Amino acid sequence: MKTFNQIKYLILLFILPALYAHGQRNNFTPGEIWPDDKGVHINAHGGGIMYQKGKYYWFGEHKIAGGAGNRAMVGVHCYSSKDLYNWKDEGIALKVSEDTTSDIAKGCILERPKVVYNKKTKKYVMWFHLELRGQGYKAARAGVATSDRINGPYTFIKSYRPNAGFMPISPAGTPDAEKVDCANIKNRSEGFFCRDLPGGQMARDMTVFVDDDGKAYHVFSAEENATLDMAELTDDYTAHTGKFARVYPGRSTEAPAVFKRKGTYYMIGSGTTGWDPNPGRWFSAPSIWGPWTYHGNPCKGLKAEITFGGQSTHVLPVQGKKDAFIFMADKWTPKDAIDGRYLWLPIKFNGDEMEIDWLEKWDLTVFDK
Ligand code: DGJ
Predict the structure, then answer these.
(1) Could you tell me if the CB of 61 is within 6 A of ligand 1?
(2) pTM for the whole thing?
C-alpha cells in the first residue's frame, strides 16, 4: 500500500508532465511558462521564426539555469509548430564547440540567432551575434552557420566584423548631417565608425530580413551600439556585399526586428539598457535603404514605457491571415537565464501607424476582426 506522500510524488513526477505533454494549447499567455511537447518551458530566447511547408520553426538561444546561462553552454535550440501555440522540441540545431579554440567554444556568447532559406544554394543559413569566450562583449562579431536541413545540424562557417573598408551609402532623403567623412568626424558614433572602418564594423544585436525579391539583409547594432547598420548579404546569404546604410545614427538602437507590409518596410527595436527593459521604438521606410523615419514607442497602456517588461526579437507574419503580424519579445531574467519568458502580442495597424497593446491571453482570431 503506497503512502499519501508517495502517491503525491508520483503525480508530480509523472502524471502532471504527461498531462501537459498531451494537453493542446489554443491561446497565447504572454509572460507565462510556455511548455513544449514534453512539458518543458520552451528554451529559445532572443529567437526568430521561419515558416516552411506548413510548419513554423522557432530558433533561439538555449539558456541554462543561473547567471552562467547568459553564456552559450549548449547552442541554438529549434522547435517546430503547425499552429504557433503548440511547439515540438526539435533539439539543438547548432551546438557550441568543445574545442576551446573554436570561435563558438562552449562559454562564448551566442545571441539572437535567425535562420533564413536560400533558394539558390538550397541551404538554411543561420546568422547570430557572437562574442568570443572570455572576452565579454568586446569581439562584437557576426557569426554564420549553414545546414541542408531546416532543423539542423548546422555547421559553423565563420565569424567576423562586417563591411571592413566600406563606406555607407546615403540614400536619397538622408540628412547631410548624417553623411560620414572620416577626415572630418562630427560626433562620437562617427568616431566609432571610422575607428572600425579598417577591421569591420561591430555587430551585436541583430536580425536578418529577406525581401520579396530574394535579397537578404543583416541588420545589426554597430558603433558600440550607437547605430544600426542595414547591410546587404551576398546571393548565397553567407557574407556581406559591402553595401550598407547607417540607420538612426547615434541614437543607440538594439533588438531590431524587420518586416514588410503593403510595400512599406517596418522595424521595431529597443533602447540600450542591458537586460533591463526600456521603451520600444518603431520606424518605417519606403525602401529597405531608407530613409527610416522614427515614430516613437509602438506600445500603449500600462507598462508601455518598458515594453511590458520585454525587448523585441522578431516580428512574425502569420501564414494564411491577412495583415497579421505578431510582435515577439523576450522578458529576460539574467539571474536565472533559463527562466526567461516570451511576450508575443498582435500588432494593430491604423492606416500605416502601428500599436501594440498588452493582452493577458489571446489567440489568432484577433486577426479575423
Ligand atoms: C541587450 C541585448 O538586446 C541582449 O541581446 C543582450 O546582448 C543584453 N543586452 C546583454 O546585456
Answers:
(1) no
(2) 0.94
